[in-house]
Amino acid sequence: MSEPMESVLEFILGRNPELDHVAGDLDLIDSRAINSLAFVEFIFLLEELTGEPIDPEEVDLDDFRTLDAIEARFFKQKAA
User: Fold this and answer.
1) How far is it, in rounded angstroms, from Cα 13 to Cα 31?
2) What average pLDDT does the chain have?
3) Cα(79)–Cα(32) distance, rounded to whole angstroms?
4) Between 36 and 48, whose confidence is greater?
């Protein structure tokens, strides 16, 4: 797991003490691992990690649904 993804995982685990790990395909929204109150803070974290702004008007929730989707959308595109 990349360093930025470690930060994403730490964010999620820090807000969900009942979780000891998060599978790459766990639906973070349906499981409420990222709830509506934490979502804005989560967006700020991703902006900080990627160095790019995220326009809330153009957000596709599927990009945030799983760790795998987050990595593909925000971190693997940069590596390619």
Assistant:
1) 13
2) 92
3) 29
4) 48
d(CA 18, CA 63): 24
Q: What percent of the chain has pLDDT over 70?
A: 95
Q: What is the pTM of this model?
A: 0.88
Q: Domain locations in the chain?
A: 3-79
Task: Quote the CA–CA distance of 28 and 52 in Å, as a whole number.
Answer: 22
The rounded Cα 43 to chain-centroid distance in angstroms is 8
pLDDT tens across 50-73, in order? 999 998 788 899 999 999 999 999
Q: Which CATH superfamily is domain 3-79 in?
A: ACP-like (1.10.1200.10)
> With the CA atoms of 58, 4, 8 and 24 taken in that order, what torsion angle do they form, in degrees rounded to the nearest 10?
90
Token pair, residue 37, equals 């109150």
